[in-house]
Amino acid sequence: MSLTPFIAMQYAVDIVNTSEHNSNKIAACLFQDDQWVAETNHRPDIFQFHFTPDIKFGQSSQFIHSETACIFNTPFMTEGAEICITDPPCPNCAKAICEAGIDHVYIDHKGLGKDFVQRRGDDFESLSLLVFEKAGVNVSIIYRKEERLEPLITPPVATRKGSAQGIEFFDWDDDTTLRDYLSKFRQRQPHTSWALAKIREGNKYLGIILFEELTNGLTPRDYAEHRQRSEKYRLPVDPLNRILYFVKRKGMTIIDNEVAVNLYPSSRALVNSVGFGLETIHIGEMKPDHDDQGHTAAQMIEKTGILKLIYL
Ligand SMILES: [Zn+2]
Could you tell me the distance, in angstroms and rounded to a whole number, from the CA of residue 160 to the centre of ligand 1? Predict the structure, then answer.
């Protein structure tokens, strides 16, 4: 039997108070047919052994947001799935949801009235909703008691389910190492930001390369307009984050931690990589992707042995 959004939202509400975050406890439930996964915003277990919750890695907290945690922990393809969230999603999670190919976002009506939203509401209204609308993602408010839905965004049918852009595949040659591929692609595209991974499709290995991109439907003009409004959030998606969302979208598996990036990853991308379960990342050059605190974050994480960074 397929889950209804009312049941899925209840699964999120049931666990929200278990969140370790002391000011913003948030939970989400990602579901598709009768399968589901629910997560709170939380720190990966491995961080809990080494750090107190207040410590930041560069620009990023240690917490994986609940929506992103659902995407990383789902055992099923996220494409075409739906997600219930106790609170309005931040712009980074909005981008993650679009990249993961999720069709419908449900927000609990109680979440819209919290202090948190009053503080961060601008980002939700000006950025998260923009990202959803352009990508063709439905957004509804849920009233659990009355089992009522109120549509917030209903995109025109013509814009739904666009495919992700800025992605290339290649046949993985077993005699060529990840390091070799990193080096080869840098010769082709020396200064853009991209990520590369070895994946399995059926019984053969493929390489996948993803470039930094705006989420589906957003234009460079949207980006230019947005830049004047907000310093905190960028509209493009880091290629390292993109690759993690894309493999979950398609139900693919990354083989042997074989992931490389051209430019130095951001603090948030590094934290997300740990949340995803990566243990190693190959890095092409020290120049930051966009966040010059990525190096600081990396040093803190590397010292514990949680993540190994290998430089070309
Ligand atoms: Zn978020």
Answer: 23
202 C-alpha vs ligand 1 centroid, how far in Å?
A: 33
For residue range 275-287, list pLDDT tens digits in order.
999 999 999 999 9
Distance 98 CA to ligand 1 centre (A): 13
- Give per-residue pLDDT as tens, 235-248: 999 999 999 999 99
94: CA distance to ligand 1 center in Å? 7
Q: Residue 68 Cα, ligand 1 centroid: separation in angstroms?
A: 7
- The pTM (predicted TM-score) of the whole model is 0.94
C-alpha–C-alpha distance, residues 224 and 193, integer Å: 19
| CATH code, 167-311 | 3.40.140.10
Q: Where in the chain is the domain with CATH 3.40.140.10?
A: 5-159, 167-311
- Expressed in angstroms and rounded, the spacing between residue 69 Cα and the centre of ligand 1 is 10
